[in-house]
Write a structure and sequence with these properties.
Elements lengths: L2 E7 L14 E8 L2 H13 L5 E4 L7 H5 L6 H27 L12 H27 L23 E6 L7 H9 L4 E11 L1
Helix pairs in contact: 3-4
Amino acid sequence: MSTHRTTTADPHDAGMPPAREADVWGLMVEFADVDSFVVAAERVRDAGYEKWDCHSPFAIHAIESAMGIKRTILPFIVLGGGLTGATLGVLMQWWMNAYDYPLNISGKPLWSIPANIPVIFELTILLSAFGAVFGMLALNKLPELNHAVFSSQRFRRVTTDRFFITIEAKDSAFEMNRTKSLMESLGGVGPVEVLLEEEG
């Protein structure tokens, strides 16, 4: 059984043999300031790439529009969870109190909304929270315990003072020479090939 490890091919490494295109996970380019980073993201977006990402040590509020990120569907997932919880709360209590095991207590109605609001409320909040947490994890494809770019020594500065754009080779618009030319024109350092190497 073979195992896989990811490495990064630095173009400044003189002793490294040229990589086969099939071994390339993608390309990465590095930036030192926010302004050039955002402008570069806009150019990658306009070039039509879909499987690419921006990496930054802090939140950049302009990056969503620069990347062309569509509005998330997470609020609808949370709404669905809340409506499901409210519906389950109503049906569960109606089944228990009015149908499955009815009790006549001092002539009070077997089923009434006011007496059942606490459970309905709690189930609404509970399933909304589940929808928010697990929906966010699913939409972000988390947990992701490893990533190809983690093997790059340069990429470690993304947590301090550097900004990176990565384009995956599996993007339908990815073509090695054309994509390299685009990334070279962005004004950053690189591009650097992020490789997938197979070991027997």
